[in-house]
Structure formats: C-alpha cells, structure tokens
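If your schedule permits, I should be very grateful for your opinion on a structural question. I would ask you to consider whether the tokens describe a fold that such a sequence might reasonably adopt. Thank you for your consideration; the sequence and its tokens are set out here.
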Amino acid sequence: MTASRAIEAITERIRERSKPHRETYLARIEEAAGQGVNRSVLSCGNLAHGFAACGAGDKAALSGDRIANVGIITSYNDMLSAHQPFENFPALIKQAAKEAGGVAQVAGGVPAMCDGVTQGQPGMELSLFSRDVIAMATAVGLTHNMFDAAVYLGVCDKIVPGLMIGALTFGHLPAVFIPAGPMTSGLPNDEKAKTRQLYAEGKIGRPELLEAESKSYHGPGTCTFYGTANSNQMLMEIMGLHTPGASFVNPGTPLRDALTKEAARRALEITALGNDYRPVGRMIDERSFVNGVVGLHATGGSTNHTIHLIAMAAAAGIALTWQDISDISDHVPLLARVYPNGLADVNHFHAAGGLGFLIRELLDAGILHEDVETIWGHGLRPYAVEAKLAPDGSVHRDPAPETSGDEKVLVPFPKAFQPTGGLKVLQGNMGHAIIKTSAVKPERRVIEAPAIVFDSQEGLNAAFKAGELDRDFVAIVRFQGPKANGMPELHQLTTVLGVLQDRGYKVALVTDGRMSGASGKVPAAIHVTPEAVEGGVIGKIQNGDVVRVDGEAGTLQVLVDDAEISARPAPLPDLTANGYGFGRELFAGFRALASRADQGAGAFGQAA
C-alpha cells in the first residue's frame, strides 16, 4: 500500500469510528447556527449590558444584526515572553475590524502558565489541567452570545489546545488563531544544554547557569526550541486555522502586525453574515486532524500532542487514538531537524523555507489531505507559501522556495532524515507508552537493563548527586500520572540522564509522567498507561527487574513472569503532599476526573 493510500485508510478508520459522536456534534452546530446572528436572540437588557462600554459608533453597529462582531479571547500577560506581545493585539484587531466595517470586543481572558517557569516546582502539577481551565474560561467569554466569530490569541503548551477545545465547543462560530511569533535567536540551544550538564555535574555554579539561560530566553516571543509551543503553531497552520505563513514571524515587526490585522479581517469575512461562512466545528474534520498528526511526525514535534490532539479531536466528536498516531508515523518521514532533534532553532527552520516548504513537500508526496477546508478557503495548497510585507504595508505571499535554504535543518521529501516519524507508541506487558525517537541515535533506541525505581524526579536527582547511578539502568519514575499528581513534566531528568549517557552508560527512562517537546537524546518511554496509581504494572516493578525499552520494535516489557507481576501487591504511596500548596487543593476534582493519557488526560468526556 502506498503512503497516500495508507493515510487515507487511517483517515477512513477514524471517520467510521467517530461517526456517532461526530454526527451528534454536527447536528448541535447546525442547531446553534440556525438561530441566526447571535445578538438577535438577546433581550434589550442583555444587549445593552453587552455594549455598554462601547463608543457610540460601535453601539449603533451592535444594535442591529447586520454588522459582524468578533470576540477576542486572549491569553495575554506580561510576565511570560510568549504572551507579552499580545498586549497590543486587541487594538490592532479592533482597528482592522472597524476599517472593514465590523466591530471587535475582548470577550475574555484565559490563564497562561509557563512550564519553563514551573519545571521542577509544585506549580507544574497544575500545568496539564490548565488546558481544561483555559477551555472553560474560553466558554465563559463566549457564552455571552455577543459574537459572530472569534479570534484566539495563544501560543504556548496548554494554551492553544485549551483554546482549541473551547473554540470547537462553540463550533458554530468561525475561529481564527493569531500567533505572536518566536523571539529572535539567542544563545544556541546546544550551548545552553552543555551549560546545564556542566551545572548538573557541579562544574559551574548558579551564576554561570543563570547567565546562559538568560541569553537563551532573552526577549518577547516564544522560546525558540521546537517544544510544545512551536509545535502548537505548526499544528494551527497545517490544520488551516492560521492565515498562511503566519506561524513563525517574529513579534514587534511590521509583518507581524500586518498578519494580525489580516487575520481580524478574515474573521469578519467568514461569519454567517457574509458569503463564506466557515464555522470551525464543520471546517475542522478528521482530515484536518490527520494533517496535524502528519505535521507532528514530519517535524519531530512535541510528545505532549499525543495527549492534546486526542482531547482536541474529542471536542469535535472525533475519536483519535494513539494507534492512529503510531500508524501514521509509519508513513511519514522526518523532514526537519530543530532542537532538540538538531542544533537549529525555529528561526533557522523558518529561514530555511519553514512551514510553506514543508507543506508543499508533504502535499506533493500525497500524504497530506489537500482537499480540506481552512479559514483561507478550500484546499491546503495556499499554505505552501512564504508571507512577506508588501510595499503598501499589506501581506504579500510568494510560493514556498523550491529548494531548502539549509539542508541540515529542512530537507525535501526524497532526502528525509529518517523514513518514519518522530513519535512512536510502545506496547507490552507494562501497558502503552509514547517514545520520541527523532532525537535519539539509532544505536540507543533499544535499552535492556535493570530497573531502579523512584517515586519522584527529586529522588532520582538525589541518587545522581550521591553517585549511585554510574551504571547501566532503566529509571522507573512512577506516580506521576494525571490521577496521581496532575502528570507534571519531568524536564529536570533530561540533563541528569544525558550526563550518564555521555559517560558511556546505557540508560533509559520509563514514567507515567510527561517530558514534552524537551524529550531529547535519552530514550524515554513516557505517558505509561495505565498509570501506577490505577494499579498499572509500572507501579509493581522492583529494583533489579530487567526492563526492555525497544523504540525500534515498539515494545515496552518488564522481563519478569506475568504471574509473578500479577501476584505482587500494588504499592500504596502517600500522595498527600501533592494535594495542597500552590493551588493544588483547587484541582482535586480534576485529578479525580482525569481520563487516561491515551484518552486525552482531561476532565471532560472523550469521544473515544
């Protein structure tokens, strides 16, 4: 079977599996859309409250039902570099809407927390569930029923998935996502990683480490490595929710502002009041999500999206599974190397041809669905472009370059870095897990070694500092799943295990926690499901048990007789300390309701 036919077969499988949920979802969209302009159902008192703070012109416009009103959902705050640029976006959007004969209002704000700030801190245990809070906050903003379309200002890890879930819940409204763009390049990512390793080994102090980190994360915009934040932007573009070429333009530039204004105008054009109504819930379908998965594999994107894509799809009545994601990987080659899969950052990727080049290559190879609907129109081919600033200040687009500007970063389809995608599902007597192979050297993708068991990343780090880990081993870090403590990222382990690997030891990580887009050169079986707190086998492994992590064959095994494993009692950890402090008390309900990682790890019902 050709790759294109295989992708079509997987898409059809998803479509058939999803049919009952999807039909119900689409019927609800049609019912909501059938009510006409949203404000028309409001009483005079409702409407008066809705535009009380507007100027006289906007009040007059919103009094009727022929002027479109765009709701702005923003994740702005000025502490986080990725979201600080959004401070000025509402003014740009309102100006563009007014010039186009419409109105725009800030409908609401959503929280935006940074995993980079909370790594290794108690607050990280709120991170995954912040996605669901963002979805609910989006609903609060849009539930006023004042809007004919919405634009979504978000960038980072849980923010875009949460906004997407919220947007699809209001699927009768058109949705346009507007990115802020990456910060300019600072200290190269490989130099930053080396500095972290030197600090972990005690060879430099905190001042030197902080200096390096500050040179890397140095200004407004998204972090420049290819983690979840930049994977989000790739997804929104390849799924047709950005305007073409918008993802990786730096903030604070004339082109960035021009793209933002253009997005606002496009949101007005695709409302039910015009001739090109594009409700997001109807526009985004199974093919759109398959395109997103293809893009994730082709770029070696974040492992977090094996969770988020399932939750996002479920919000549209689509039952996407890990097996779908894994099967798609078998037919999608890796075309980009961006840190941690290479030395380049996203600015280098963009300069080499970026998403326009990548989309063109994947379309020409037949492994992207071209016949999808996007906010730009019919078909994905218009996204195979490069956005530029025209002399009059508008956005001009050229076809994507025919050749890569740097084949160390981005290659054409026939020159793929590896024949399959960067993510793989592992299966075995330990359950299911995800491994990111794109940054792991082939000779390190199969590790068989005795287990050393930890109940926290702090325990592993303490053992490293005590000199107890200078040997071959598989680190088992358990009780890190969504029900146990909110499934934090265990980012601190990347450096420690990397040091041990560099010393010549065979090491791997197995955990029911997350590693995110920072999953690097050490083989890591993450998101292990069932998690330990639900009686999963990962909780029954003992020190010395031989564990095999096979990223080539796709297996995860503890080499102990199944009967013996079954007879072992499940440990009963004391998780009391994870239930309070830093707001964790308020998230007890989320931990109790959380679905498994392979079902989206969310507190909402899942289509699967």
